């Protein structure tokens, strides 16, 4: 597959984009590509680099077949998962993991078993077990997946600012800083 936006970049910026796609860390990507330590965020902000990243994100989404529909289906399964499905109904004892529904096996990070004793020392007697099921914060995980592959399933609002809006905000911020120091902003 050809990548027109990536192909327009020089070799160093192509390396930056591909390194950035690994963990979305601009500093590491800059080091990998051989950029000066302070320049990585400037490189990341370049339009051509942003276009190449967007192109790579889109390709990843198609390759993995993860889109908004997939994400919503996973969320639906998590929402509908019933903890009762991992217990035997009559005894309320935990089923073996291989008997759990898929969604519970995906969500569980561990099962902790603790032996319960009565008495102390040599006179203690095993009276039972306590089991704790630890599961992922599945909703947070899915949100991160959604953001990572650029599904935009959690995007609520997009605001665009003009250069004038940005300039006005910068001036207002400088004014507040100067006033907090008891000085007046003079370049106006």
Structural features:
188 residues; mainly alpha; Arc Repressor Mutant, subunit A; 3 domains; two-stranded antiparallel sheet; 2 strands; 52% helix; elongated
General description of the model:
The protein is mainly α and 188 residues long. It folds into 3 domains: 1-64, Arc Repressor Mutant, subunit A (Orthogonal Bundle), CATH 1.10.10; 71-141, no CATH class; 158-188, no CATH class. It is 52% helix and 12% strand. The protein has 9 helices and 2 strands. The protein has a two-stranded antiparallel ribbon. It is elongated. The two termini are 53 Å apart.
- Which structural category fits the helices and strands? mainly alpha
**Low-confidence region ranges:** none
Give helix and strand order, one letter per element, not per position: HHHHHHHEEHH
Strand content: 5-15%
Across the major sheet, the strand order is 1-2
Strand runs, count? 2
Shape: elongated
Work out the count of structural domains.
Answer: 3
Please tell me how large the radius of gyration is. 27 Å
Average pLDDT, all residues: 83
Most strands sheet: 2 strands, antiparallel
Quickly count the helices: 9
Please give the alpha-carbon distance between the first and last residues. Answer: 53 Å
Helical coverage, percent range: 40-55%
